[in-house]
Amino acid sequence: MTGRRRAVATLLAIAVVAPLAGPVVAPAGGHGNHLTARAQVSGDGSVVVEQLFLLEDGYVAIHESDGGDPGEVVGHRKLTSGYHRNVAVAVDQSWWESTSGNTSLVAVLHDDAEDGDEFDPETDSTLFSLGTLAADEFAVRQGDGSVTVVAMSLSGHTVADSLTVPNAQLAEDGHLVVRRSDEETGAPGEVVGSTSLAAGAHENVTVPVNRSRLPGNDSRVSLWVTVYRDDGDGEFDRESDEPVRVGGTPVQSRVAATLGENGTDGGTGGLNVGVNTATATPTTTAAPGDSTTTTTTASGDGETSMPAVGVVGTLAAVAAGALLAARRRGDG
Length: 332
Known about the structure:
Elements: H1 3-21, E1 34-36, E2 40-42, E3 46-54, E4 58-66, E5 69-79, E6 82-90, H2 93-97, E7 102-111, E8 128-129, E9 132-133, E10 135-142, E11 148-150, E12 162-170, E13 174-181, E14 188-197, E15 200-208, E16 220-229, E17 245-246, E18 249-250, E19 252-258, E20 273-274, E21 284-285, E22 292-294, H3 311-331
Parallel strand pairs: 2-10
Antiparallel strand pairs: 1-3, 3-6, 4-5, 4-7, 6-22, 7-10, 8-9, 11-12, 12-15, 13-14, 13-16, 16-19, 17-18, 19-20, 21-22
Helix pairs in contact: 1-3
């Protein structure tokens, strides 16, 4: 049995036995193959895909935007199946040098049609999940240094008074600012926390959060983490400090958080945010600036969680999609 057929068979088996196995961690929202990329500044000729999930080994490719659709490929990276976060993808040097100002790119997931050969957009087809292209358009501009933020992580326990941001890059001294999503529009609203950072790359940044500005216990809240410039005084001031923007869009990341009373996590004091409500153990952590890989079937866009109810149907749909994809490749 080939690796691809084995993967499809495994998915089908999971869908069959799920009712007997109890709660199952599945791709959040049933998205399957998917990714998230947001506005950013690049200082080194690479762009960052915030997070992605691949059902099988494949590629993340960076395309020029053709009115929002994927155009010419300007960079790519090979990835194993599973969940990846903070994925840096180098773009073609010639394209990079010919580009200036703000531009739009589209990050797209592709399969590996020939099982390990070089990437070819003509044969390594774009991937879909339940009929939707696994892609995301984002704005990027060149700068003297990179500006990115990745707030998504795998969630664990529930607590209240701080938020841990896995990755942030600042081109100059500034701030990470946490804002609660507006309940009606979903846009960044009230500021609920901030911390000052020096220029450079940072990992696992703890941002204090004002619990009194968040809802009651045992609930979920949507938050935005935004990179702000400092006005020179070294302290965050919402009136004078401005977000770093690319084409009018702030450099920011959106997450969902599970809330509780202060100290309910045993005193660690961190507000846990993530793509689902289950705890997963990372098995491979790459070097700073590279991607972090977790071998688990959990994934998501940081805004929803997958309850046990409905998981079987989701797995069946994903398995069916994978089977059709395998048949298509076999027929080709």
